[in-house]
Amino acid sequence: METRELRYFVAVAEELHFGRAARRLGIAQPPLSRAIRQLERRLGVTLLERDSRSVALTAAGSVLLREGRAALDAVDAADRRTRRAGQAVNGGPGLVLATKAGASSELLPKLLDAYAAEPDAVPVEVLLCGIGEQERLLRDGRADVALLHLPFDSTTGLDTEELVTEQQVAVLPAGHPLARRPHLLMAEVETLSGLPMPRWPRADGSYPEGLGPEVRDHAQLFQLIALGRTAVVLPESVRTLLLADLAAVPVPDAPAVTTVIAWPPHSRSRPLAALIRTATRL
Amino acid sequence: METRELRYFVAVAEELHFGRAARRLGIAQPPLSRAIRQLERRLGVTLLERDSRSVALTAAGSVLLREGRAALDAVDAADRRTRRAGQAVNGGPGLVLATKAGASSELLPKLLDAYAAEPDAVPVEVLLCGIGEQERLLRDGRADVALLHLPFDSTTGLDTEELVTEQQVAVLPAGHPLARRPHLLMAEVETLSGLPMPRWPRADGSYPEGLGPEVRDHAQLFQLIALGRTAVVLPESVRTLLLADLAAVPVPDAPAVTTVIAWPPHSRSRPLAALIRTATRL
DNA sequence: GCGGGCGATACCCGACGGGTATCGATCCGG
DNA sequence: CCGGATCGATACCCGTCGGGTATCGCCCGC
């Protein structure tokens, strides 16, 4: 199976429409139809059920969609990491670390400083990304290592080491009546009238239903809190970057958050191993 | 990057010889040389340092070897799993479970029986494999799920659930002087004169240096123990399949062995999820 | 110095990927 | 109920590219 065939199939399986898929792929529709037929013939399996008005995935087709995406990610990762390894001879970034913008604001500088002090340290590029993006960045090779936050992020398919565990705090507008309380319970935060919890994007980029504003990163979030539109429960390390007009109140019954350093299982280069070692010793 | 190019590169990188690699791939040498050059040109990276007498990997080349193998495994897995999904409409194996031959001899039948009693259970094929083979079988799609034994097997890159933890016992010839002791210590087992510990193959198939016999599976092993050539420390569940002329003595200070059920992270089909659920409830 | 091994180059051919034109089926609006 | 629109399949052509053979250039060892 060639990656071209896989890309074609994934496009059709996602669009469920040969014309649109062909446009997305930058080719005409007939070669695409032919390529899918050939793929089906070679696999000896029907992937798509098509009558002349609609296209639907068979059971085998959805298996190939899932597995094919993973395979294409792996190929893309090989491509990107090889390119980087080739250019790194001079001073290109030796490692790319992905982390949610605004998270781990205490840990990250400590980690970078400690690693930079190591012998044989290579340059580290920090890739600030949106919520839940880290897994994909690691899998398709745009990042080598990431900081994740349990229990929010999924670590399936990644190797991890635990770094720190911290309690959570509620972040409120400074003037809010509850902002002067010594602590709050989850139930109180969730039912704050007029301050619905914000909605984060899911893995596929869509947002869950709800009242709160849709947010992508912490900058957005803090501004919305300052404007009195929402409130949120976050790990206590966010305190270091709170704006003056925000208040943080401990929430003892919120689940503890564990920060882990994560990397794709098979790619443990020497610089990566050194970075992980440094992180676990902090 | 096409999988053909990756297969070509991996072959050359493994052989470090264009002629041999071409023979292995079933093509002539010139097209192979050209394909590698094209790949290098497209990536903008030198992968192989070649003078007319020898071929060596560059740093970027070894990155591509590692990442490329993973990518090819993922593509192979997509191929195999799709084929199986397509043929499973009638009664082909719905799930393939890999386990070390001779291990988990108590757990496995219980698991299979319990799963078969579930509604919607699909046929399960059991693939008995050698030591350390499970990871590769899972990654390239020949198996869907495996039983691994910590701390011996690596679970990097796999999702797992713990099933049982057991102590280990020393397996000795029945007539051995230590066979009647109520328990032994690791130090005693390791220094049994004339009974060196057997050597298991490493991930790459090679054997570590040492005195003991090279073994691949439990059948070999038990026969060698009965012959008085070796002794070994294994999880206590091996007792159920010990030959009459072997004795098992508890070794309290040997590390406990945890059996886990493992599967590739992205492929959690409905039958697989049911099997995992059944396993964790045993 | 010469033969042999090895990768690179030159050149040819056939297969296959991609494009355009068109068909056949189905749905929809009038 | 009919005509147009939509969509996948088919037919056919062309250019590219993957693969083969022949040969070269280089370097080693005898």
TrEMBL record, chains A, B:
GO molecular function term, any single one: DNA binding
Any single Pfam family the record assigns to this protein: LysR_substrate
TM segment ranges: none
Gene3D superfamilies (alphabetical): Periplasmic binding protein-like II (3.40.190.10), Winged helix-like DNA-binding domain superfamily/Winged helix DNA-binding domain (1.10.10.10)
Source domain of life: Bacteria
GO cellular component terms given for this protein: protein-DNA complex
UniProt keyword annotations, A-Z: DNA-binding, Transcription, Transcription regulation
Limits of the HTH lysR-type domain: 1-58
Family: Belongs to the LysR transcriptional regulatory family.
The protein's name in its UniProt record: LysR family transcriptional regulator
Gene source species: Micromonospora tulbaghiae
